[in-house]
User: Fold this.
Amino acid sequence: MDRPIRVLVAKPGLDGHDRGAKVIARALRDAGMEVIYTGLRQTPEQIVQAAIQEDVDVVAMSILSGAHNHLFPKVVNLLREEGVDDVLIIGGGVIPDEDIPKLKEAGIEEIFTPGTSTKEVVEFIKNNLKR
Amino acid sequence: MDLGERLLNGDRRACARLITMLENNDNEAIDILRDLYKYSGNAYVIGVTGAPGSGKSTLTDKIVKEFRKKGKKIGILAIDPTSPFTGGAILGDRIRMNDLTLDKNVFIRSMGTRGALGGMSRATWGAVKVLDIFGMDYIFIETVGVGQSEIDIVKIADTVLMVMVPNLGDDIQAIKAGIMEIADVFAINKSDLEGADRTKLEIEMNLDLSEDKEYRPPVVKVSARQNKGIDDLIDKLMEHRRYLEDTGKIIERRKKNIKLEIMKLIEEELMSLIMDKAFRENLIEDLANDVIAKETDPYTAKERLIDLIKE
Assistant:
């Protein structure tokens, strides 16, 4: 069935910079996706509830504050607790290379670091949807 | 347990999934609504409409917080425009309602218009039923930012709240046809700004000329961001509800809207039948070529497509 992909773009944590998240949101929009943008300073609980109510295919999170090791896996775990297992979870932001394997192990399927083209993100989403 | 039962049992994921299915034209969702329709009709629907940036989301957030203090369960459908070029959308109304996200008695859903032009999406009608059956006491529908003629909200809401802001045009705007005619309650938001009194006066003068002497839409000055005037506004919304219920006009209004909904469903079905025929075997392409070549005209081309349906 031809239907738009729904993506939640969220900024967990306390950093107040959402330029990157907005650029991604806009790129996904232009790729024909429905982007639900929740704004700054979201708790993992808020992200999970929004993902459930919006029934999204993808949760895309951006963090620049360094709290990714804590917040990204927390979102994955809360989603699992709610029984949500058909959502693709990706992350982006200023994330050191050495942290990436651990995050992937925790269930973040891909991490996009500075310099990633928006096209790469779009392609990754299209190729890795879970439903 | 199937989706319908899960919805009746208050499962939020079932509620969300059913709305998705309706948005995607999934007939299974329609069948579920057919079965559960008898459980609908308990929710009161408030439409919130107004120009882009007038503060519909922020105002809805403030109103809903007051309703929550009274223990009411609330559904919110927030509609934003879909790109006619890519089909994509930025749905950003939740940003103003983040405090409500964790409240288990509030369900917020963002929807893209997906080609609909009346300020709502085609699936809004179904989504209201889902939230109603889910057990919501009130359902707020926030339209896209509207201009002068997107009035579909009146075809679904029990009460229409029109959100205005000061200084958007002169008194001629207030007497124009269309959007100004559908309000049951006017809110002048951002009324801390200069010009709010003048805007109120212009709307009041326009209302003075109305033929309807039985109910006059009140005009309330508010500031959503400063949380001012919200109680007064809620009183006015409730007064309209009481007016409809006491006079029995609520039945009249809902019946009128059900007729419109049935007609709309027929229209959609006929349209999809025609489109199906037109695009299958490239018929529309051939007809367009014939019209360009002056071998036929658009009127005759239409008849040929219609004749196919009749067969």
Notes: The helical segments of chain A are 19-30, 44-54, 68-81, 100-105, 118-128. The longest helix of chain A spans residues 68-81.
